[in-house]
Amino acid sequence: MTQSTIVDYLVREQRSFAEEPFNVVDALVLATLSYLKFESHEALKVTSVESVALVDVISGTDRESLLRIGWMKGSPHTDDFLEAILNSARFRETRVCLYADEHVDSTEKQFSAVTFLPGDGRAYLTFRGTDGTMVGWKENFNITFRDFTPAQLASVSYASGVASAVEERLAFIGHSKGGSHAHYAALCVSDEVFARTDMVVNFDGPSFLSDPSPRVDDPRFKEMFRKIVPEGSLFGLLLEESQDYRVIGASAKLSRQHEPFSWTVEGSDFHYVEGLRRRAKWVGATLSGWLKTRTIEEREMFIDTVYQVLSATDARTIFDLRDHLGSNLRTVMRASKGLDPEMRHFMVETFKMLVSAAGEETRKVRDQRKTAVRKRRHARYTRVDEGVSEGETATQR
User: Fold this and answer.
1) What tens digit of pLDDT does each residue of 213-271 get?
2) Under CATH, what is the fold of the domain 6-277?
């Protein structure tokens, strides 16, 4: 079957949810839609249970405002994606409600979620990933030394609030950090809310420093939970200790594979592959190896210091950092020189450990390649020897 993307899927799949039940590709569509700035639409009352048609939000909102910040703003596929939604018979009846968007710099919190009602008897609580703000990215890495973050706690509160406001069955969905929030919320909501839940999907979102709930081993949770990562996944496997995920193909290069528009679709499901790409394995193993060399306190100190240095640039988003890279690098260098000698020594040693971890993984990859080459040569020579022996035997006969 021909591989395609979620945009192709939206164009092709025009059946209603009654004709073709909601599937995991539909879940990725909603996860992608969660990055829209829904407060830009005048009729959508933020945090209100009063719903608005999704197509009205997209068609009735200035596109620049709707895509104010985040990875979708710079993607060449966004316009086609939104047009496909507007022309989709499948999503025509979908409504939007209970939008939340919270930024608190002092507690390093970036949280956003929205609920979609496609009319199939479920309410889809969809959590947004990192929006590109510096605080949002800092929160990403706080999970390497915190058992929970303010946004993770907010995900549980949001789920409880939605459950009390709607009557439908519940599904938790998210991409990137949003996938981690969906995962966390499903594990930590009350038993009453969990009993109404029948789908949890984490698209390339990281795991947790420690299991947040015994529910992680609940057979019912395991049955409804799906974690999906692209073959070049990096961020999505951070702190991941299990193999409880499926790998799908992606057309983009490694650095852009985190974006859903490159993920490959076959029919009403994804195109699954056998495993991660070699480079993704190397990066993942390097990060894991490096984290193991640092204590929880050292991780916190390192990440806080890096954030402090980057904050000297006054950049509000990672896009600000990128767009003025030259001047920002000079500012970062000046800020780094301003660190006290003990902290500067700590930072240098920490970076050395990262380089050492990368070197160790590189050596492992080289050894694995050499072993594989030796095995292939041995197998080839063995076949040749067996062929000669058989030939000699035949001659002797």
Assistant:
1) 999 999 999 999 999 999 988 778 888 888 889 999 998 876 688 899 999 999 999 99
2) Rossmann fold (3.40.50)
Give per-residue pLDDT as tens, 271-301: 999 988 888 888 777 888 888 888 889 888 8
Alpha-carbon gap, residue 157 to 152, rounded angstroms: 9
pLDDT digits (tens, 9 = 90+) for 347-395: 777 777 777 776 776 787 677 677 766 777 767 666 655 555 555 554 4
Global pTM? 0.84
248 membership: H or E segment, kind and range: strand 246-248
Locate the domains of the chain by residue range. 6-277, 283-389
- C-alpha angle with apex 147: 144 to 153, nearest 5 degrees? 115
Mean pLDDT of the chain: 86
Residue 43, classed as helix, strand or coil, is coil
CA-to-CA separations, 108 to 46, 102, 103, 127, in angstroms, rounded = 22, 11, 8, 17
Q: Which residue type occupies 290? A: W
How crowded is residue 264: how many other Cβ atoms within 10 Å of its Cβ?
20
C-alpha span between 231 and 300 (Å, rounded) = 29
Question: What CA–CA distances, in Å, run from 371 to 284, 360, 363, 367, 375?
Answer: 22, 17, 12, 6, 6
Q: Is there a contact between 209 and 147 (Cβ–Cβ < 8 Å)?
A: yes
What's the N-to-C CA distance of the chain in angstroms? 53
Within 8 A by CB and 6+ apart from 55, the residues are 85, 86, 91, 92, 94
Sheet holding 95-104, edge to edge: 52-53, 95-104, 109-117, 122-127, 169-175, 197-203, 225-230, 246-248
